[in-house]
Specification:
Phage tail proteins - horseshoe like beta roll fold; alpha+beta; 4 helices; Elongation Factor Tu (Ef-tu), domain 3; Phage tail protein beta-alpha-beta fold; 13-stranded mixed β-sheet; about 325 residues; 3-stranded mixed β-sheet
C-alpha cells in the first residue's frame, strides 16, 4: 500500500520494524493544556498470516513521519492483541512522564526554568524553551504532579504579564513557545479544506466582568482589589472572578493583574469546531485564521484540541477552537 506516512517501532533488542504497510488507521491527538499528545494505531494482518516475528511491547519507541517530516515520536503504553487479525497500540509522547509527583520549592524563578528543572529531574530531552521573563516570587509544591507544577507556573506568568505560552513535545523535544509565534500558515474555511463546522457563543464558562483579587498583608489583614465592567454587568449580570494572590505583590502589581484578567475574561466566549481535510503540522496551541462567509466569520482562533486521523491514504482532522484576542475580526 502506498502511504503518505511511515511508521517505525523499535523493539529495543536491535530490531527496528517498519510497520507502515500493516497500519490500517492512526489517530493523533494534541491538547493545548496539560496533556501529552497520544497516538492510537491499528495494525492489521490477514488471518493466519505469519507476522515474521514482529511483536510490540509496552515501552517500545514508535516514530511516525508524514510527508517525510516528523509527526509523532513517543513510547507505547498499551498493547491490545488477541486472536483477531489486528493489534491496537496506544502511545504517548515524553510529556507523559511529567505525570509523576514530587516536591519542588524555588524562589524568584521563571516558568521556563521550572519546566527545565522538571524535565532534568526525569531525564527528558529538551528543545527550545522561550524565556517567559516574569519571575515568580515563590513556587512551593509538595507531592504534586510535575505537569501541574509546570501549568501553575505558566498560569502565574499569564496573570502577571498577559503572555500565553504553549508547552508541547516537538518530535522528541520538550518545547515552550509563545502563542504569537505559533500562527499556522493556512486559512481554514469555505474554500479551504473545511467540510463541516459548528459555532457556539456562551458566557457560561470562563466569562467574568467583576474581578476580585485578595492579598493577606503581614498583619494577617486581608485586602481586596476589584476591577468591574459596569457595561457588561448591565448586559449579563455580575459574573465574579475571585483569586488570592501572592502577599509579596504590591498594590500596583495587583491592580495591573486585575485589569489584565478583566481584559481577557470580560468577553463572550466563542468556540468553533470544524471537520476538515488533514493539514500536516497543525496541532493544539496554534493560531489559525478561519473564514466562513455564511457566518460572517473572519478571525483567528486558538486550537484547543486537534485530532488527526489517517485512514489508508485519507487524512482528516477535527479541531476544537476558541477566539483569541488578536487577529482580524
Amino acid at each position: 500500500m502506498s502511504a503518505l506516512y511511515e511508521v517505525l517501532i523499535d523493539n529495543l533488542d536491535g530490531t527496528l520494524w517498519n510497520v507502515t504497510e500493516s497500519i490500517s488507521q492512526m489517530t493523533w491527538k494534541t491538547s493545548r493544556i496539560g496533556k501529552p499528545s497520544s497516538l492510537e494505531a491499528t495494525l492489521v494482518y490477514a488471518k493466519g498470516m505469519d507476522r515474521g516475528g514482529f511483536k510490540a511491547e509496552n515501552g517500545n519507541p514508535i516514530q511516525v513521519k508524514l510527508d517525510g517530516k516528523g509527526f509523532f515520536l513517543g513510547r507505547i503504553f498499551s498493547v491490545d492483541d488477541s486472536e483477531e487479525a489486528s493489534i491496537q497500540l496506544l502511545a504517548y509522547d515524553q510529556l507523559r512522564y511529567l505525570s509523576e509527583s514530587d516536591t519542588y520549592i524555588r524562589k524568584n524563578i521563571r516558568a521556563d526554568e521550572v519546566i527545565l528543572d522538571q524535565c532534568k529531574a526525569i531525564g527528558l530531552t529538551v528543545g527550545k524553551l522561550a524565556n517567559t521573563v516574569h519571575r515568580i516570587p515563590k513556587v512551593s509544591e509538595d507531592g504534586q504532579k510535575r505537569i501541574d507544577i509546570v501549568n501553575r507556573a505558566l498560569d502565574s506568568t499569564l496573570m502577571a504579564n498577559g503572555d500565553l505560552y504553549v508547552l508541547y513535545d516537538d518530535f522528541g523535544k520538550v518545547t515552550l513557545t509563545h502563542v504569537r509565534d505559533m500562527a499556522a500558515d493556512i486559512v481554514l474555511g469555505d474554500e479551504s479544506l473545511v467540510y463541516g463546522y459548528k459555532r457556539k457563543k456562551s458566557i457560561e464558562d470562563d466569562t467574568y466582568n467583576f474581578i476580585k483579587l485578595a492579598r493577606d498583608n503581614k498583619d494577617g489583614v486581608r485586602q481586596e482589589f476589584v476591577e468591574p465592567d459596569k457595561g457588561s454587568m448591565n448586559r449579563w449580570g455580575k459574573l465574579q472572578y475571585y483569586q488570592k494572590v501572592d502577599e509579596k505583590l504590591n498594590e500596583q502589581q495587583i491592580r495591573e493583574m486585575a485589569k489584565r484578567l478583566l481584559a481577557v475574561k470580560n468577553r463572550e466566549q466563542q468556540k468553533f469546531s470544524l471537520e476538515a481535510l488533514g493539514y500536516p503540522g497543525l496541532r493544539a496551541g496554534m493560531k489559525v485564521q478561519v473564514t466562513v462567509d455564511k457566518l460572517g466569520l473572519n478571525r483567528f482562533f486558538l486550537i484547543e484540541e486537534c485530532t488527526h486521523k489517517l485512514d489508508g491514504n485519507k487524512h482528516t482532522m477535527s479541531l476544537e477552537m476558541k477566539v483569541v484576542a488578536d487577529g482580524p475580526e
